[in-house]
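Researcher: I've been going back and forth with a colleague about how Oxygen-dependent protoporphyrinogen oxidase might be arranged in three dimensions. Neither of us has a model we trust, so I'd like an independent prediction. The organism is Rhodococcoides corynebacterioides, in case that matters for your notes. Sequence below.
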Amino acid sequence: MTSVAVVGAGISGLVAAYRLRQSLGPTARIVVVEKAPRIGGKLRSVDLAGGPVDVGAEAFIARRPEVPALLDELGLADQLVRPSPAARPLLRSGGALHGLPTGTLMGIPATSDSVRTLVDDATCRRIDTDRDRPLRWTPGDDASVGDLVSERFGSQVTARSVDPLLGGVYSGLAVTTSIRAALPTLAAALDAGAPSLVDAVERARPTSAPGPVFGGLRGGYGVLLDALLAASGAELVAADVRRVTSDDRGAWHVDGVGTVDGVVLAAPAPQTVSMLLDTAPALARELGGVELASSAVVALGFEDGGLPQNSGVLVATGELDSSGVPLRAKAFTLSSRKWPHLAERGGQLVRVSFGRFGDADIVDRPDADLVSAARTDLHEVLGVDEEPTTTFVQRWYGGLPQYRPGHTDLVARVEDAASAVRRLELAGAYLHGVGVPACVATASAAAARLADALA
Ligand SMILES: Cc1cc2nc3c(=O)[nH]c(=O)nc-3n(C[C@H](O)[C@H](O)[C@H](O)COP(=O)(O)OP(=O)(O)OC[C@H]3O[C@@H](n4cnc5c(N)ncnc54)[C@H](O)[C@@H]3O)c2cc1C
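Model: Here is an independent structure prediction for Oxygen-dependent protoporphyrinogen oxidase. You can compare it with whatever you and your colleague have in mind.
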């Protein structure tokens, strides 16, 4: 009987276990090892204000096929919900609210029209004359998004348009985020010889496909996690895996499981490094280069709240309140405006997000301080002063791996080293995209390689 262990019961590990069941058949022994008292990792649905609410990831890119396809396979197609098209996102910049710039690539404009209300006239002129200045780029290069955008358009575009969008996805800043890893279509346009940044952005922007960009789950991500675990038929074992080692005959030894024929490691990079220190030191060394950003989400329930009809507000870098004190929140999701299925429950729900790479101290504050900071900033940005009926604080230590410049080369070296290790595969958000659809794709590919190796 074939036996495999999957370390980590986040979305990556659970998808790997489910795909392994599909490939290896009903008799295989599949064990999922998880050190936390619950499955899901960075996905967590809690009961709040009348039903399940996601306090980690709350959406996915629905134009990628992975999550809708997975929901279909698992008989959960009716769980797929879409955000309200009428509720548009806002941006807080320069002490005022603006519509989120349109026609950009992650906030990088192709014309000054996209950001005219956010930046000064000199910056608009720089964008409009970008084609007059030669762009230096060697194919295969990488740099931070912030360095390139600030060099071409100036720092206002970076702080007011790009940072808020990248910060929402990576908990990073434009200056710490790789062009090649985070914006691969932009890197491809630059490699192909785009003569200016505006030309590269024009080529790299996604063509507007029909239908909403995002999707979510009516019952929260918890529904998908439970369905994956059930469909995988895996044993769930509670253990903190410190080391995985292989013996002369190629069998793997995993803490809490014993001996198995193959392993998928689906834990975050730092824990994976520890597990591999003895067995694959070169691989562990490469993987040690991945840094993480911590964040916190404060959910606030209100009877009314007096919220605007918008889906949320992103905050520009360096925003101050009316007395000159920096805002701590980086984003507000007006969940009950954004998601019709949450609006149906009555009341209003807001998620306030804190924490960017290099600014993790806020995450260590006591709950009361985080709730207080959330309410203060919500009052400053949207004028909400109602007492919340419910509060919930969720900290995400090491919530998101950082895709620093050079990340794609680092991943290539890691995967090259991993391919030399027999019947061991890696999955997780640090490899080929932090979003849930990317994690599903990476884990499915890892499971397919392991099943091939075991065949
Ligand atoms: C606040 C926040 C909001 C986000 N929003 C979105 C969003 O809206 N849309 C989107 O697509 N993505 C979003 N993301 C990203 C996405 O949620 C994550 O990238 C993804 O869930 C990571 O899944 P994973 O399985 O790779 O890793 P994880 O979720 O980190 O799972 C790894 C698991 O391994 C376990 N583990 C670790 N070490 C060990 C060990 N030694 N032994 C046993 N088990 C171990 C952990 O306990 C954990 O359960 C968000 C992330 C955060 C933090």
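Researcher: What would you highlight for our discussion?
Model: I'd start with this: The pocket of flavin-adenine dinucleotide is lined by residues 7-13, 33-36, 41-43, 56-60, 240-241, 266-268, 271, 295, 297, 396, 399-400, 428-429, 434-436, 439 (CB under 6 Å). After that, consider the following. The radius of gyration is 23 Å.
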